[in-house]
């Protein structure tokens, strides 16, 4: 029958029209600034720097500059500090004096987070990055980039849990080794002196 | 007095548009000016209380004939007339205008007071068309139909010679996929 | 009739009556013009926002709801935006025609509202040949489309204009054919007389609208389809098919001229919708006898709004036609069906003297079966397999 398909289509749109008033679950869109969809765990935008406990001293970054070298967009700029600080294993490491990311250049590829051997740089989920000034507002400094490990746990729970677990294991292993080394040093001390 | 004023205004605009239709350089502008003249004539009809004739003038000339003219202009890709053609055109126009002016000037109806004509309603015009003037109407209809059929015949023959060409499938340019496979 | 029905008429006469006698007719005319322009201008604003909201709902979205309460001030925001936009004219464009085209589209359309009866005694000018005037006015829109497309010196504009003109000419035939049936039955070209011809009640309660007859129903359908095509409404919006030719003849327009084109298109839609209401839906007549005392202008407005909603509904549902489908649909289906509809109307008129019990049913059966037969038969020609498949020589 000619026109039957048209009538069926009209019925479908009318069902949508009436249904969208009756059943809000049908709506494909949300009222964005007031209502927000929960972020998908794998979502990533720009990198941020993870710190433990204290943003000034707890920064995991050791200014190794691997991320700076690997960044395809070359949007990372690092200046090493002369002073060192102990990392979570107690080893003395370098730290960045300047750590800048030009997010107008950053393309969110996540390579920096992938290559970082210190779990220091991770991908954030902030997306409302618009600024009124083109250059200085989009160049994020160390203080703006530093975010606590809790933030990382919040946005990427699985990845953060895995990282935390590994770091904890490493720490325990290092402590065990240290204890072992200390014990060995204690026992070995008389032995080494023996032959002399 | 307001009637004469509006008549002068409309007549002036119509004449101006007609002159522009002849004098303008761009042929599309000429066609559009001619449409302005058609519309001006319709306004004159309306002023004479000939509603039906006025609206029919707009409907037929502005709505249909004008579009036909424009299409013809577009399809023939109007070329600029040479200066000799333009000169002879002016001469012909002047001659025609002179003849018309003489004809109108010698017309006795111009010099006597016109009796106000009874306004013809659409119903009267329609009745007259299908009773008194049925033969001319049907003749015109027949003529137009035959013209339409002739146009269709001419147009169809062209496409037939094109599509009946058996070699058309071989002659089509190679598709991108085939070019890749050939190379 | 009661005062509420004639409230606008008495208001206009009172207001113009306050002026000195010599200027009273001019005053009355100015009042009517102002009322029409205000009513349909605000109707345009309201339609733009309601269309977006309804389209949104039909696509399971909310639609604009930010500016003002429920987003109702959105048209104002749009107007401000359009006004402060830069008015760009291409270097190669024919500046005069480019500027003239939106005016040629928008200005004459206002005249079309002069002959529409919006209520009892509510018509600006009752022309003897009102419907002819209406269609004569419509001729200007083709001209405007051509001027816009040609003067822009842009190939998309020209293609859009050519499509638009081909479409308008093709669909003017079924539009007029469907109109002619109503004219034939009313025996007049005056829109007021056509509304009067639909007065009275069948069976003592149902209005004698043209749409309640077989030819009227078919004619109304043809009219709606042709009206959608005439006003470039989806699914006949090929002239501005944005996925193919950017915006057709609107490509090189911006700012206020663009807004004028939109105004013109919507006004054309309103005018042709008002004509449809007048011709087939009984104009300002109420649908059943029980509602005979209600204001006439309310019924016109209600039918008008319902038809506008129908156009929006169709727009939300149907995809755009291809150009060959569009022209085939008109010349192979609508035009023959319009001619058959003339026959059905003639049969209806010829059987009018029948008075035996159940004569209405028999007349319906005869007219309906003629139309249904041709509807099915002509519809076969529209099937995709009815004609040899198109061969694309240059597109893989």
Task: Describe the structure concisely.
Chain B is an all-alpha fold and 183 residues long. Chain B contains 8 helices and no strands. The termini of chain C are far apart.
Can you describe what's shown?
The complex is a heterotrimer of chains A (196), B (183) and C (396). Chain A has helices at 4-22, 66-70, 111-115, 142-145, 149-155, 157-193, and strands at residues 47-51, 76-86, 92-102, 121-123, 139-140, 146-148. Chain A is an alpha+beta fold and 196 residues long. Chain A has a three-stranded mixed beta sheet. In chain A, α5 (149-155) packs across α6. The longest helix of chain A is centred in the last third of the chain and has 37 residues, at 157-193. Chain A is elongated. The relative contact order of chain A is 0.14. The mean pLDDT of chain A is 86. By secondary structure, chain B is mainly alpha-helical. Chain B has helices spanning 2-23, 27-47, 51-76, 83-106, 122-130, 134-163, 168-171, 176-182. Chain B is globular and about 50 Å long. The termini of chain B are far apart. Mean pLDDT of chain B is 77; it is low at 163-172 and 178-183. By secondary structure, chain C is an all-alpha fold. Chain C has a two-stranded antiparallel sheet with strand order 1-2. In chain C, β1 and β2 form a beta hairpin. In chain C, α2 packs across α10 (255-280), α2 packs parallel to α11 (296-317) and α12 runs antiparallel to α13 (359-380). The relative contact order of chain C is 0.12. The model of chain C has no long low-confidence stretch (mean pLDDT 85). Chains B and C meet through α2 and α3 of B and α5 and α6 of C.
């Amino acid at each position: 029958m000619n026109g039957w398909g048209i009538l069926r289509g009209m019925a479908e749109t009318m069902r949508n029209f009436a249904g969208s008033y009756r059943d809000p679950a049908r709506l494909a869109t949300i009222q964005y600034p007031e209502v927000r969809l929960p972020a998908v765990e794998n979502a990533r935008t720009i990198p941020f720097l993870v710190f433990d406990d204290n943003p000034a001293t707890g920064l995991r970054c050791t200014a190794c500059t691997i991320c700076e070298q690997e960044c395809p967009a070359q949007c990372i700029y690092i200046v090493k500090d002369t002073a060192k600080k102990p990392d979570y294993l107690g080893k003395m490491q370098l730290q960045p004096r300047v750590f800048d990311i030009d997010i107008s250049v950053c393309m969110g590829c996540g390579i920096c987070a992938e290559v970082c051997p210190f779990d220091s740089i991770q991908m954030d989920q902030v997306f409302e990055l618009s600024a009124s000034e083109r250059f200085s507002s989009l160049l994020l400094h160390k203080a703006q980039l530093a975010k606590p490990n809790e933030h990382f746990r919040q946005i990427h729970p699985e990845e953060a849990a895995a990282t935390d677990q590994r770091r904890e294991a490493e720490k325990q292993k290092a402590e065990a080794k240290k204890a072992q080394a200390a014990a060995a040093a204690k026992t070995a001390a008389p032995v080494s002196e023996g032959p002399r | 007095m307001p009637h004469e004023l509006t008549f002068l205004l409309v007549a002036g605009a119509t004449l101006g548009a007609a002159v522009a239709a002849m004098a303008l350089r761009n042929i599309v502008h000429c066609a559009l000016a001619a449409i302005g003249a058609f519309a001006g004539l319709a306004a004159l009809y309306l002023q004479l209380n000939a509603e039906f004739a006025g609206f029919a003038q707009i409907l037929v000339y502005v709505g249909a004939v004008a579009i036909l003219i424009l299409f013809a202009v577009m399809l023939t890709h109007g070329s600029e007339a040479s200066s000799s053609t333009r000169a002879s055109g002016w001469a012909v126009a002047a001659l025609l205008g002179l003849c018309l002016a003489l004809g109108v000037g010698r017309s006795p109806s111009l010099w006597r007071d016109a009796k106000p004509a009874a306004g013809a309603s659409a119903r009267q015009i329609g009745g007259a068309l299908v009773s008194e003037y049925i033969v001319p109407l049907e003749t015109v209809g027949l003529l137009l139909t035959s013209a339409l059929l002739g146009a269709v015949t001419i147009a169809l023959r062209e496409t037939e010679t094109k599509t009946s060409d058996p070699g058309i499938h071989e002659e089509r340019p190679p598709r991108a996929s085939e070019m890749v496979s050939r190379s | 009739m009661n005062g509420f029905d004639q409230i606008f008429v008495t208001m206009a006469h009172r207001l113009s009556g306050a002026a000195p006698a010599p200027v009273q007719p001019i005053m009355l005319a100015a009042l009517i013009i102002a009322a029409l322009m205000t009513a349909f201008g605000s109707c345009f604003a309201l339609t733009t926002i309601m269309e977006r909201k309804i389209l949104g709902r039909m696509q399971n979205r909310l639609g604009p709801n930010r500016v003002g309460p429920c987003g109702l001030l959105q048209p104002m925001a749009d107007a401000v935006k359009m006004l402060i936009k830069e008015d760009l004219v291409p270097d190669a464009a024919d500046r005069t025609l480019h500027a003239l085209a939106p005016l040629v589209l928008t200005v004459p359309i206002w005249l079309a509202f002069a002959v529409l009866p919006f209520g009892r005694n509510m018509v600006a000018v009752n022309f003897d040949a009102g419907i002819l005037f209406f269609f004569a006015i419509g001729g200007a829109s083709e001209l405007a489309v051509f001027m816009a497309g040609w003067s822009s010196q842009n190939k998309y504009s020209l293609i859009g204009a050519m499509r638009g003109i081909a479409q308008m000419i093709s669909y003017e035939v079924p539009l007029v054919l469907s109109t002619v049936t109503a004219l034939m039955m009313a025996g007049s070209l005056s829109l007021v007389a056509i509304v009067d011809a639909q007065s009275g009640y069948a069976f003592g309660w149902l209005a004698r609208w043209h749409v309640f007859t077989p030819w009227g129903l078919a004619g109304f359908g043809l009219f709606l389809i042709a009206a959608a095509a005439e006003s470039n409404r989806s699914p006949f919006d090929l002239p501005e098919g944005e996925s193919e030719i950017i915006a057709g003849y609107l490509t090189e327009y911006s700012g206020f001229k663009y807004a004028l084109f939109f105004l013109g298109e919507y006004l054309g839609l309103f005018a042709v919708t008002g004509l449809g209401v007048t011709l087939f839906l009984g104009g300002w007549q109420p649908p059943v006898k029980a509602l005979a005392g209600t204001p006439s202008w309310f019924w016109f407005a209600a039918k008008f709004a319902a038809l506008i909603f129908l156009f929006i509904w169709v727009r939300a549902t149907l995809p755009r036609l291809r150009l060959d489908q569009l022209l085939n649909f008109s010349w192979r289906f609508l035009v023959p069906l319009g001619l058959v509809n003339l026959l059905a109307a003639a049969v209806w008129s010829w059987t009018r003297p029948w008075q035996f019990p159940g004569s209405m049913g028999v007349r319906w059966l005869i007219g309906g079966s003629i139309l249904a037969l041709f509807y099915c038969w002509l519809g076969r020609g529209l099937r995709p397999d009815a004609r040899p498949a198109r061969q694309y020589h240059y597109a893989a």
